[in-house]
Amino acid sequence: MGSRDDEYDYLFKVVLIGDSGVGKSNLLSRFTRNEFNLESKSTIGVEFATRSIQVEGKTVKAQIWDTAGQERYRAITSAYYRGAVGALLVYDIAKHVTYENVERWLKELRDHADQNIVIMLVGNKSDLRHLRAVPTDEAKIYAEKNQLSFIETSALDSTNVEAAFTNILTEIYKSVSNKHVGSDRMVPLPSSGVDITSSTNENQKKQCSVSKNPRTQIPNLLFMAHCLVFERTGTSSSCILL
Fold it and tell me: What is the similarity comment for this entry (predicted)?
């Protein structure tokens, strides 16, 4: 019998992108596990976690990928854009250079992801008001110019973290619902693809395997069959591409 987490109506892949150190991993852990780590280390390769929410009476399961921001990992992160229907483009409001690099991340995203991907610009670390280097209005104007939604968050004190993920998942859901009426674009329902599973033995290396279970399949993630999970905790896993 499947767990409650396996029961969902929609499965959406969402990626977190942006420079290293902007707080992507803590946004992920705050939303999926309500945790924050002041000593969070830079992500190596990719980490992903899941959480389900209710949107208009439907259970939407988000599979959220935290891709490494360091240059030395950029060659492999492009693979993780495949199948993504949403993206949170994160910068640090206290470090203007991370905002300057948003343009480069946005170009990479649009070069590798589906052209209709839903994108939200996220100014993280809003708790650092005294160190603010990026004016809110400036980021809002940029987001409007590039047809992005916008929000400021703090993974430290939880400000707007729930709202950020809920808003983007709701926007994705509405986009998918509209596709049901006459659009031939891909509908990210759990009807095709692969499911990445592993043995129940926790905290040890394990090879991902491919499941044929149609109820828990993940669309367009065939490359994940070559992913090595080296840590798994609750709803999250860390892996690198072999």
Answer: Belongs to the small GTPase superfamily. Rab family.
Average pLDDT for the chain? 77
List, for residues 29-82, the tens digit of each pLDDT value: 999 999 998 876 776 667 789 999 999 999 999 999 987 666 556 655 567 788
- Looking at 179, 207, 231, the residue that finishes a domain is 179
Q: What is the pTM of this model?
A: 0.74
In this structure, the number of other CB atoms found within 10 A of the CB of residue 121 comes to: 25
Buried b (16+ CB within 10 A) or exposed e, 143-158: beeeebbbbbbbbbee
CATH of the domain at 70: 3.40.50.300
pLDDT tens-digit map of 112-122: 899 899 999 99
Q: Which residue range forms the structural domain that includes residue 220? A: 195-241
Does 82 map to a domain? yes
Q: Are residues 114 and 210 in the same domain?
A: no
226 closest CA partner among 205, 210, 204, 242: 242
> How many structural domains compose the chain?
2
For 114, residues 6+ apart whose C-beta sits below 8 A from its C-beta are 84, 85, 186
pLDDT tens, 148-159?
999 999 999 999
